[in-house]
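User: What would this chain look like folded?
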Amino acid sequence: MKPHRLPSGVPTSGPRRVPPARGGRAALRALLAALMAGGALAAAGPAFADVSRDDAAAVVKRETGGRVLAVERAEVQGRAVWRVKVVTPGGDVRVLLVDVASGKSL
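Assistant: Here's the prediction, encoded as structure tokens.
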């Protein structure tokens, strides 16, 4: 066997062998299972996720059939809400509140 040489031409003691990773397949399987379980939880939707401004506008638009003019975040009786101003198909301007936590119209 020829001696192993570095790119600079200096001989080394021989070919280097990288030691195998500890834990091997069992650790990889455990990591993969944990990631998949976390993905399943994320797909279900965390309970603490707030409803976005666009989601609040969509809720009001679906309920009234009108055109959304403005959406602002506000607080009513200690509860975070989206204050959505909409023009109804009949031409009336209304302000509806959407709960930030649940996405339900109040």
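The mean pLDDT is 80. If you want, I can go into more detail on any region.
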